[in-house]
Structure formats: C-alpha cells, structure tokens
C-alpha cells in the first residue's frame, strides 16, 4: 500500500503492468503480474488496469478478480496471442505481419538511386507510423471514401479509420474504412504517415485556401474563417 500510495495510483487515469518478455518462466512472470493487478485493484478498485501477459491461458485468472471490468476499460495484451494472430492474418493477407511490425517499430532508413524502386518504397514504408489528428471543418459531410481520397491525393496522407460517436455523443468506437459514414465535426482520423507534422495537414486543410495548391508541404494554417 505504501508503494501504491507513493506512485499515486488513486490519482492515475490508468495503470500499466508490463511483462518481462525475456523471462525464463512465462507462467511465473504472468502469475507475479496478476498478483500485482490484484494488489492494485484492492487498493483502488475503480482504476483502469492494462496488463501484458506472456501466455494466453493465463487470461482466465483475471476474470476471478471481483473488480476487473472489461466495460470500464480493463484490458489484457497477450504477446503469444498477438504473434499467433499475426501469423493467421498473414495467411489471409500475405505481408500483413510485416506491415504491422513496421508500423509499431521505429526505424530509420536511407533510400538510394542504386536501389530498385520496390526497395526504396519498402524502406520509405518502414519509416511510417500510426498517428491521430482531428479532421478540419472542410471534411464535414464528406463520406469516408471521399475524405480518404482527398487525404491521399491532396495531402499525401493515408487515412485508415475514424472515430465514430453515437447519437448522444456519449460513446465512441473506431471504424476502419466505414464506407457509408459521413464525417462529423471534430472527427478524429487515424493515419499512416512519416511524422506528426505531416498529419497536421488534415487539420490545417481549408478548401477555400488550399484547393488550388499542388505541393502538399505548402498546406499550412490559414487565416480563413471558413
């Protein structure tokens, strides 16, 4: 309790419990981390906990914790489950696991005119990461395909998904390629890009000021009230 009080668990938005992926006994590592979750929940039963486990079958023990609540945001990330999931998805879509690994790992790269085109394209892709940004008012009322086409052709950004809120705007979910969905004001977009600065174009874009611009690097914050 003293340690939990010292790190101010009762004031935190969430608590992350990370596993040692280099441990010699994965089950023992999971057991120790589950005990840590129990200790955290006993101290503050309403805190959101996200735990990383090594073995899939150990997820069942979390359900025995009385204050564990998936609806409140408690969640578990299982490394073995992720690896097997990537393998399964790669059977359906070859290259999926490579793409996801490149997205979630930061790599530096250097292209060269001596390399083949596909090698330069691949290296360029390894430098991309996932970013979020609010879509500008110019996107409002567009369908998702229209917005993603504009982002790709005009802003040189890859829009993958958006945050969709319910009618009461009390709850939201991430929708990947929602074909018939129209963009609402202050919609969050999920992008694949080289940097956070590039993604800001989605917020700066103004149809009145930037419609004729061909160079995406010139799309900056404008003074237009539209």
From TrEMBL:
A GO molecular-function annotation: large conductance calcium-activated potassium channel activity
Ranges of residues in domain Calcium-activated potassium channel BK alpha subunit: 74-162
CC terms in the record's Gene Ontology section: postsynaptic membrane
Every RCK N-terminal domain range: 3-51
Keyword Ion transport: yes
KW Zinc-finger (keyword) present: no
Compartments in which it is found: Membrane
Domain of life: Eukaryota
Alphabetic keyword roster: Ion channel, Ion transport, Membrane, Potassium, Potassium channel, Potassium transport, Transmembrane, Transmembrane helix, Transport
Membrane topology classification: Multi-pass membrane protein
Alphabetical list of Pfam families matching this protein: BK_channel_a, Slo-like_RCK
Record protein name field: Large conductance calcium-activated potassium channel
Organism of this sequence: Homarus americanus
Source taxonomy: Eukaryota, Metazoa, Ecdysozoa, Arthropoda, Crustacea
């Amino acid at each position: 309790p003293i340690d939990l009080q010292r790190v101010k668990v009762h004031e935190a938005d969430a608590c992350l419990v990370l596993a040692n992926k280099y441990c010699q006994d994965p089950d023992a590592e999971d057991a120790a981390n589950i005990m840590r979750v129990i200790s955290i929940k006993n101290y503050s039963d309403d805190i959101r906990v996200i735990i990383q486990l090594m073995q899939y079958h150990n997820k069942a023990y979390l359900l025995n914790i009385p204050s564990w609540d998936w609806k409140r945001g408690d969640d578990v990330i299982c490394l073995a489950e992720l690896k097997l999931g990537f393998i399964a998805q790669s059977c359906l879509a070859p290259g999926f696991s490579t793409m996801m690994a490149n997205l979630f790992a930061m790599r530096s790269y250097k292209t060269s005119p001596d390399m083949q085109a596909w090698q330069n394209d691949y290296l360029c892709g390894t430098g991309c990461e996932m970013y979020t940004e609010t879509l500008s008012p110019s996107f409002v009322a567009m369908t998702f395909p229209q917005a993603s086409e504009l982002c790709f052709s005009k802003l040189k950004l890859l829009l993958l998904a958006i945050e969709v809120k319910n009618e009461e705007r009390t709850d939201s979910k991430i929708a990947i390629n929602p074909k018939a969905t129209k963009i609402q004001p202050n919609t969050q977009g999920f992008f694949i890009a080289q940097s956070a600065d590039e993604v800001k174009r989605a917020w700066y874009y103004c149809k009145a000021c930037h419609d004729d611009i061909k160079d995406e690097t010139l799309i900056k914050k404008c003074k237009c009230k539209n």
